[in-house]
Amino acid sequence: MPRIDSDATTLTGVAERVRSAGDGRAVSVADILEAIGQRGFGPLILVFALIALSPVGAIPGASIVTAVLITLLSIQLLARRSAPWAPARLRAIRIGRGRLDTAIDRLRPALARIDRVVRSRWRTLAEPPWSAAIPLCCIALSALMIPLALVPWGVVPPSAAMVGLGLGLSARDGLVLAIGHGLAAGAAVFAAFLLL
Q1: How far apart are alpha carbons 13 and 143 in whole angstroms?
Q2: Is 10 helix (H, G, I), strand (E, B) or coil?
Q3: Contact 5, 12 (CB under 8 A)
Q4: How far is CA 126 from CA 67, 112, 134, 176, 180, in A?
Q5: How far apart are CA 98 and CA 91, in angstroms?
Q6: Nearest Cα to 162, choosing from 33, 51, 26?
Q7: Taking a C-beta distance cutoff of 8 angstroms, is the pair 145, 64 a contact?
Q8: Is 177 helix (H, G, I), strand (E, B) or coil?
Q9: Is the whole-model pTM more than 0.85?
Q10: pLDDT digit string, tens, across residues 42-80
Q11: pLDDT tens readout for residues 165-174
Q12: How far lies 1's CA from each of 4, 107, 130, in Å?
């Protein structure tokens, strides 16, 4: 049986931590916060962006919930909170384990390919003062997700950008952060084209 990578600085590691969260037929936001929260804000932004990007994000309202959660995490990151917080109503939201496992299984091959090229480099972009751009960008992208949720697959560009930003922050990979910021600019152009 292959070893399960539980490192929260890799995409596959984050996916496996989410898979193992909770102990019932559904996984709550509270379960995810407990499983990943101690690893910092980067992995949490990453996991909620991955959920929005996955087939789970197609559930009506799911992308809006993830956008709200990412906004809350980003504000706390800017405020330099030591531990993540979410209100009880959001913590109680649950995702069926079968649906979540299916989404992880579909994404895992692509996640593993990305993990092979991610490493710590260009660390300046992941450290102050440049790191402040990450949560600010995530807040803007989350705001875009709310109107884009009405467009089929509309949340994919901002979600993909936040995956890049969350992964780059978690792994201290400045190149991935730069790609994430580039994807964010593309998502903004995409949103302007659709919404204006």
Answers
A1: 28
A2: coil
A3: yes
A4: 22, 22, 8, 10, 12
A5: 19
A6: 51
A7: yes
A8: helix
A9: yes
A10: 999 999 999 999 888 878 889 999 999 999 999 999 999
A11: 999 998 999 9
A12: 9, 20, 42
